Amino acid sequence: MSNLLAAAKKYITLGFSVIATDANKRSIFKWTHYQKEKITQDALATMFASHKTAGIAIICGAISGNLEVVDVDCKYDLSGRLFEEFMQAIVDALPDLAHRLVIATTKSGGYHIMYRCSALQGNLKLARRGATDEELIQEPHDKVRVLIETRGEGGYVIAAPTDGYAYSQNTIRDLPEITSEQRETIFEIARSFNQLMEPVSHQHKFVEQKTYSKSPFRDYNERGDVVGLLQAHGWQVVRTTERQTIFKRPGNSTSKTSGDYDHDKGFFAVFTTSSIFEPMKGYRPCAVYAMLECNGDYKEAAKKLLAMGYGEPYKPVAKAVKKFIKKNKQLGITNEDLQVGLSKTFNISFQDAGEDILAYEAEEQAAAGEFWHWNSIDEKLSIIYIRFVKFLQQQGFGLYFYDKSSPIFKIIHNDANRLEEATSEKIKKFIQHYLEGYDFDGLEYTQEQLLEIIYKSEKLFGEKLFEFLQPVTLDFLRDTKDTCYFPFRNGIVEITQGEFKLRSYGEMNKVIWKSDIINHHIDIDLSDDFECEFSDFIGKVCGNDQDRILNACSILGYMLHKYKHPAFPHAVVFGEETEDESKGGGTGKGILVRALTEMMSAEIIDGKNFKIDKSFAFQRVGLDTKLIVIQDIEKNFDFKKFYSIITEGITIEKKNKDELYIPYEDSPKLSITTNYTINDEGNHAKRRLKIMEFSGYFHPGHSPQDEYGHLLFNDWDSDEWNRFYNFMFYCVRLYLMKGIIDLDQGGKYRRKKIKGQFGEEFMEWFDDYSSNGCANWNEFSAKYNDFLGSNDLDKKDYSIKRFKKGLQVAADNFSFKLEQRRNRQNNNRYELRLIKTT
């Protein structure tokens, strides 16, 4: 890595802030600090000495003299000409600047265009395209591909001599300073390659209060001369292609183009920020008209367009005419005969009669395709319930019978293999959203009228109606004994003992709970080094003891692995190693729980008020819940009540709902946090409990925020999140390889446990007894009386049964064997002794 270190030092002398990166282009260490302060020589040497170092990156922004980079990502270019056309446009617009720009090639076949400019911003996306059908099959949740973007304040770029990176035009020593005007010209050119626009809707500015036979907006969109309109307002036509008309904005501009009208899509879009239009937004012709002619007032635009002959005011068909048409159609009269009869009966022209028939048929056809019906004769709206049920089924709603032998079901919504429970409230929101996007142009009723009917229909969202939905069969993505899955935005991480692998959604083709998809673009780290803030946190709460760290990592892996092995039904307790209960708390247990919730769907329950035998104790647990955390349980918590949940399954009881039983293999795992200890006396408890003790490194006087200078999770950048996820993958793989790596409970935790069960006075007495002649046989009654006397207690204060049980539990916890006998030579009295076993 000596060549990278030498290059890094040269970059620093040239005024750039640099960091070392790994093979996945991620910073070796947390890098945000170096956005404000350049790295020291010692830190630089340490960073580039890491075995993970594979490249060098330059931090953009003010720290590097206002460096900004335009990143042209050619791997997503479907034309194969993106960079060449982009550079030619820059040469045409800025001939004196184009040859002075610094250009570097990237490992993926892209280009970095580099310069300095005082007008700096953060990272910007300048040109995008939608994912192709093939790409969506592979990654259905990644619907956008970025073609051109910038790296500015808060960003960095990989630089030469990293493998695959080299300067192709000039070197970074020759970095030019450009003006804000030149920068804007480059940005305008970049935006001209944008293929993905967000349509500008006029609904938020103007809501039609009445319907039209034909909307003036729709009519203008279909036949309005938007090109002529733009020219009338000073926009110059630069050129016309088969699909587009290219414009230059009014006024002075060094750019050759400023916007275009796409005739196929019917959108006008601008690349410049120097116009009344917003860049990278799609404007329909009616929106262009409203902006240019009416200052964005769509109500005024509708009036003007109607006056110009666009659209038709609504001409309702008379009730008598509708009745006549309906009656004759029911009798099987043909449209030709009906047109003649209508003309004679109502003394209207033959053409008007034909238009009335067409209008009636259009109304009927439109009504037949939806779950509501408009009675044009009585002018009434109504809901057709059977259509409503069919509509919900078409939209992915159905009944999910979790237990095939049970009549109990859940209403679910399946959206492209993304599943979620659907309450009546969620279905209401879905219907509302659907109608908000529905086109009511030309209808005799408004959105408001239909919503009013829906709001008043109590039966529409009742469970009795939902019972008519069809049952669905679902092929879930499930963890297996040897494999664990984590869905991310860009694919599904598959973890086995041997490797991590990113697999596409199309390849898996399984149903996933929507709540399980982690909202992050994951990059898998194939190295064996998973340093991150959270791994450092784990080290500190484990006292930087390697055995304890491995135990903690394997426990995390167990919790994250959703498969429940029938032979290993465990509950995990996060406790504290401190002996003094009064000094507990603030050790970081909540942060570890937060880490688990970032990876899986979890339900957090307040342990202070939790009663397992209380009705609705688990009412917030859903079918997608993978983990239940009972947080901060009280002293003397009865763990035995959880045995059936840990080993058998869980019954979910909700108010006014049928109870639902989730069997063991699909039920959530259980975790408990406490400042106290849990009675693990007996083999049943020991088998079920796995305890992770938190050291006292963090405490109320020194929090993780004090240690790291910010809140964990809340203040992380994408790079730190990626490190965190990869560390958690490592924990899962460790568990798959070795299971839970057991560790003896710490002495302080054991002492706290004995104190909690049998009192502090008993612990002090046992310390004295076990260290002074405990291997000799002693009369049990004598030791019992000795204990009472040394603590000024009566038998009523401390029973002999409790004392005997305390001896056995303490012996088990501190590596003694408690031996008992009846001594015939001593009047058959009961005697005991403790033998050290280790």
From TrEMBL:
<dbReference type="InterPro" id="IPR027417">
    <property type="entry name" value="P-loop_NTPase"/>
</dbReference>
<dbReference type="InterPro" id="IPR045455">
    <property type="entry name" value="NrS-1_pol-like_helicase"/>
</dbReference>
<feature type="domain" description="DNA primase/polymerase bifunctional N-terminal">
    <location>
        <begin position="8"/>
        <end position="179"/>
    </location>
</feature>
<dbReference type="InterPro" id="IPR015330">
    <property type="entry name" value="DNA_primase/pol_bifunc_N"/>
</dbReference>
<dbReference type="Pfam" id="PF09250">
    <property type="entry name" value="Prim-Pol"/>
</dbReference>
<dbReference type="Pfam" id="PF19263">
    <property type="entry name" value="DUF5906"/>
</dbReference>
<protein>
    <recommendedName>
        <fullName>DNA primase/polymerase bifunctional N-terminal domain-containing protein</fullName>
    </recommendedName>
</protein>
